[in-house]
Amino acid sequence: MRTFGKIVVIGAGVLALAACGDKQNTAGSGQSSGAAPASASTAAEAPAGSKGKECTAEDVKTTGKFGEAPTITIPDDCDPPKKLIVKDLEPGTGDGAKSGQQLKMNYSLVTWSNKQKLDSSFDRGEPFDLSLGAGDVIKGWDQGLDGIKQGARRLLIIPPDLGYGKGGNGIQPNETLVFVTDAVSVPTNKG
Hints:
Keywords: Isomerase, Rotamase. Its EC number is 5.2.1.8. It is an enzyme of class 5 (isomerase). Helices cover 8% and strands 32% of the residues. It is mostly beta strands. It has a single domain (2-20, 51-185), classed as Chitinase A, domain 3 (Roll). The strands form 4 sheets. Strands 6, 8, 9, 10, 12 and 13 form a 6-stranded antiparallel beta sheet that branches. It is globular.
């Protein structure tokens, strides 16, 4: 894996994990978007093609334990969430990651629109290194990995505004990204 500025060249494909735009607030760990359940009137007001309700972390199914390549199944009966969703699937131990720390992560990425795996460090057998909060990665990672502990497996559902927005580097415009991440290495906080 070679890094060129904010673009990471991985194997034969290119997956840019570059940050763009201003910082934005996100849903807290384990929280869904906070949207009210869909009712008959909500469904009637939903945009064309809408399922009438936003998905939550519980709607996205994953398999596998820490260190194993996960499978990610995106449901057909709800819409992608509009806010960042963060859920620990396995808690990990030790100190939570803080901005400025060097992390080593494994990940698998499935795109919402086609429900297909786009990239996976598990498949390459090489974790991904990043400096948390430094803008090395998309905003959804900088925000969603805050506080992760070593040995944790975390689900990130990242809306377009915290991902690739208008698209590029193999990502379609307005694409919601679903990651399962494993914290291979998180430094111990000294203080």
